[in-house]
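We store sequence, tokenised fold; for instance:
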Amino acid sequence: MFELTGKTAVVTGGARGIGKAISTTLAKQGASVAVADLNPREAADTVSVIKSAGGNAMAVETDVTDLESVKAAVKKVTEELGAIDILVNNAGWDRIMPFIKTTPDFWDKVIAINYRGVLNTVYAVAEGMMAKNSGKIINISSDAALVGSMGEAVYAGAKGAIVSFSKSMAREFARNKINVNVVCPGPTETPLIDDMKAADDFAVKVLGNIDKAIPLKRLGRPEDIAAAVIFLASDAADYITGQVLSVSGGLSMSS
């Protein structure tokens, strides 16, 4: 697909779902991959899959909501795999429910994982990328950021913040030849979707027949998102920055 041999990549939330697909696909293209995840067991399992296929990877336990944890992870990755060339901010979390049924604690958790986590990781890797005048940052947002989403008001807001932040970083980092882009998945078959359905009947109602509203008539698959990320991480995307790519089977369209 795209050659990434010699590159070091960090994927947050890289242990399962979309993150696992991104991690394994990066490794297939030759990158050394750090699977940064809060769950060390699942991260180790993904690393095992990568190594079994002949790739190079390491697991690094990381809490993206904690800047010191992120800094420690970046230091460990740099020492073991080399300077970071690619950062994929994939870590995310949500529950589907009407906004009036949410609480401030819920708001804080959604914002901390989905938005502050991106601030922390970009902050931690930026200096290294600027020093070598190269880098690719791909932030995973959501189509919810572009068009809104029933039962996901706080999540949509946090993901919208990622879009604005990424465009700002694309402008700031351009002089250092660091590309910053955004991938917005639509509804995708992941463990998080399963968790949300299991947690609340409202989520089942919202997600139950959503595939019928998608022009391509199916939910996304993790590998669909991974393919977009690989392109943006590659040399083929050197002249692309500050852009938002929706991967949603046509569920949301813009001019």
User: Anything to note?
Assistant: The chain has one domain: 8-186+221-247. The longest strand covers residues 178-185.
